[in-house]
Amino acid sequence: xxxxxxxxxxxxxxxxxxxxxxxxxxxxxxxxxxxxxxxxxxxxxxxxxxxxxxxxxxxxxxxxxxxxxxxxxxxxxxxxxxxxxxxxxxxxxxxxxxxxxxxxxxxxxxxxxxxxxxxxxxxxxxxxxxxxxxxxxxxxxxxxxxxxxxxxxxxxxxxxxxxxxxxxxxxxxxxxxxxxxxxxxxxxxxxxxxxxxxxxxxxxxxxxxxxxxxxxxxxxxxxxxxxxxxxxxxxxxxxxxxxxxxxxxxxxxxxxxxxxxxxxxxxxxxxxxxxxxxxxxxxxxxxxxxxxxxxxxxxxxxxxxxxxxxxxxxxxxxxxxxxxxxxxxxxxxxxxxxxxxxxxxxxxxxxxxxxxxxxxxxxxxxxxxxxxxxxxxxxxxxxxxxxxxxxxxxxxxxxxxxxxxxxxxxxxxxxxxxxxxxxxxxxxxxxxxxxxxxxxxxxxxxxxxxxxxxxxxxxxxxxxxxxxxxxxxxxxxxxxxxxxxxxxxxxxxxxxxxxxxxxxxxxxxxxxxxxxxxxxxxxxxxxxxxxxxxxxxxxxxxxxxxxxxxxxxxxxxxxxxxxxxxxxxxxxxxxxxxxxxxxxxxxxxxxxxxxxxxxxxxxxxxxxxxxxxxxxxxxxxxxxxxxxxxxxxxxxxxxxxxxxxxxxxxxxxxxxxxxxxxxxxxxxxxxxxxxxxxxxxxxxxxxxxxxxxxxxxxxxxxxxxxxxxxxxxxxxxxxxxxxxxxxxxxxxxxxxxxxxxxxxxxxxxxxxxxxxxxxxxxxxxxxxxxxxxxxxxxxxxxxxxxxxxxxxxxxxxxxxxxxxxx
Length: 806
Ligand code: BGC
Ligand code: IFM
Known about the structure:
single chain; 806 residues; Beta-galactosidase, Chain A, domain 5; Glycosyltransferase; 4 domains; 6-stranded antiparallel sheet; 28% helix; 26% strand; globular; binds beta-D-glucopyranose
């Protein structure tokens, strides 16, 4: 069953009923001001950092799930009122439709002959969002209409806002001037910053105190002000600052009117002169022209067109046409879009991530890079330098950093020993895409400490060294607190049965080893070897280190039919046929093969057969089998999940593309594509009632075969699944893969495909690629035959015709 459909022409997903199985969201903003918005206008906004500069309040994990948003209430003269986005009044609407597009959302409906459509987006280069309400009177008589806007302001630090009421109930400050509501609560510092909420029409009234708007003991479904049809002109002093405008309109039959709203963030430059006539803390002089501009409908039209043009440009870096519609739709539109969202949000802000607990992940951001580097290489460069600047002098890493301060923090622990190696893989992906070796010379500090700057290349050397300095009893890398699998905490041990030492020191100080990190090391060392050779530095030691680690994997990491997962604190093997549960894990199969381990000697093919036999389900490949049926202290959090969920045997989608890549590496195009289709969200649209999450983006997890809800997705949007699936399908299945020497075209597609075409921008040139089948393999570039699969580098600006015959 579906809850909408794809409109590929307009690059929109069209939801045709408001009661989707879960709120289906979209993201507003592309640069500094962001928001999430659900299909019923729920969500919140922030400037740069969802924790530290939160503009509007949101209630997590609520019932209904999604409460707090960008709400508009309409009321006719006879006292009827409703929300044209369905929430929060939930009146029965006709012709409800939500169109989630690329960085904008449009929600429309009819209620008793009044049509209303609201468009929400953030104009490029602005720190504000525009709401445009268009109302049409389709009745055959004139109608008196009131429109009330509503946002609830958050007192900036969302963590503090949710926990420190005793203080915050006394700090709220607002100001209303010329119909603009300014939310100017200070946050422990006087920054001369504020939020504002403005309306294009003359106001019949306003409210800035939540209690005055809602009325005591009422909720958002029947605010007293809306019910009564009159605002109270309240000015909040402490408690909960709120923003509501009241606009009255008389609409003749057939008449349409537009009302613009602008919600924004403003921070005056430090040296801005205060307007002597203004308040002490707000200098409105600079923001007023901005507000006036975005309240003009012509600006809104231009802003939306500019946003569209930006997306044309971004998505234009790769467009494909294949025999499979789900592939085209995901590659050309939604997967690329999701990659950009993960670039901006990392794992911080979604319906499943509060924006408070997680900042930018070290490993996450490096992997996300794989999905966006071709669209925004300059910003990828900047991102890499930001990440590297948080690296510790030991080569180790904070697990995450706060986007606003760009400082690392250990809020969710440290000592994840895979972290440093991802930096090598991220940088390598960047250089392959851009050819920009100069990034390796960039001076980057360690832990952001002044005077600690070293070339980025030195950071990569320390990343590799970090692993080599931490080898365990079998010569495999120590896992530390965990590797990619956050929940595989193998240094939890106890002297007292039933009690674990959960301190970071103990978790990362143990001797447990990871075969996954070993595979990742082989991959990273080989990539670093290639980079070094290109950069004119000695490379042999990296190749030797990779070969040596591959040998150690063969000796201690191979179980006979698949790669083992780890050794725990006590030296017991994990992920082996000798275990009673957790016999085979997906991660080392993917990572070791991606590192090239077993590809030559055929063990990779054996491991892949084991995956297909033991881990593959119709909904994707589960993380391990058998799932752990009870909690095991020596394995940590992984065994705390019920079987089939999350890291305990869930289909952790992030790992599935590793197997697609591995299948492609051994030449199995049918196998790779089969795995791709199992988790492709567009291909799962038909089972939306079972899948439940948005059919246009990947979710972190689909419940595994041991779960009672097998096939149900969870935690959509912010997941490394996006970048990795994009890499798997575009670079390995379609085979259009950036390498240090140029663009490789080396598809491993299903046997039934007659071919496909693609347009790829690469280092300034545009390659028009056509792949067909024939009697023998040949590659012809601009009419001339080329040896091997790598295209000769074309000059920037060139248009190149590429014909590959398989
Ligand atoms: C997992 C969570 C887990 C957390 C622990 C996450 O990546 O998906 O389920 O609780 O890591 O740090
Ligand atoms: O690898 C992690 C990732 O960093 C955050 N989400 C879960 C993954 C697996 O534990």
